[in-house]
Amino acid sequence: GGLQLLFDQNPTLKVVLSHTAMTNPSNARSILKTYPNIMLSIKVVTPTNAWKNLEPVVNSNGEVYEDWATLFEEMPDRFVIGSDAKFMRRGFTLDTYEKMIDMVRRLLGSLSPETAQDIAYNNAKVMFP
């Protein structure tokens, strides 16, 4: 209901929902079909108890789950990458960032080149020219 209210009051609003909307691919597909001005930021994390409400897009080996890969390929213009990097947070290092980016690259490498290019670069450029 909150999204509907936002778009009822602001029909041209553009929204990026973080962490792949913290939901599963079926719900994400429904959100994207209902709201054309929403994009989802992909947070690449492996399954962990720390993110109990997040449906990870990759398994513990860093491989993209098939249902997420299908959605990325089906709607490649609706996703952007979100590293969620916390550069000024105590304990966050460049090594940590490099590992995060490596996971993103592995995810993108498992998709078609066109989809990977859209998600990695083109979509953000279109949404925020």
Explained architecture:
The structure is a single chain. The protein has 129 residues and is mostly helical. Helix content is 45%, strand content 9%. It has helices at 2-9, 25-34, 66-74, 94-109, 113-127, and strands at residues 15-17, 38-42, 79-81. The protein has a three-stranded parallel sheet. β2, α3 and β3 (79-81) form a beta-alpha-beta unit. The longest helix is centred in the last third of the chain and has 16 residues, at 94-109. The relative contact order is 0.16.
Concise overview:
The chain has 129 residues and is mainly alpha-helical. The protein has helices spanning 2-9, 25-34, 66-74, 94-109, 113-127; strands at residues 15-17, 38-42, 79-81.
Give the key terms.
129 residues; mainly alpha
- Portion in helices: 40-55%
Summing up helix and strand content along with how strands pair, one would put the structural category as mainly alpha
**Strand arrangement, major sheet:** 1-2-3
Calculate the terminal CA-CA distance, rounded to whole Å. Answer: 29 Å
Q: Which parts are unreliable, with pLDDT below 50 for 5 consecutive residues or more?
A: none
Structure annotation, total helices = 5
What proportion strand?
Answer: 5-15%
Largest sheet: 3 strands, parallel
How many runs of DSSP E, i.e. beta strands? 3
* Rg, nearest Å: 15 Å
Overall 3D form: globular
What is the mean predicted local confidence, pLDDT? 88
Helix and strand element order: HEHEHEHH
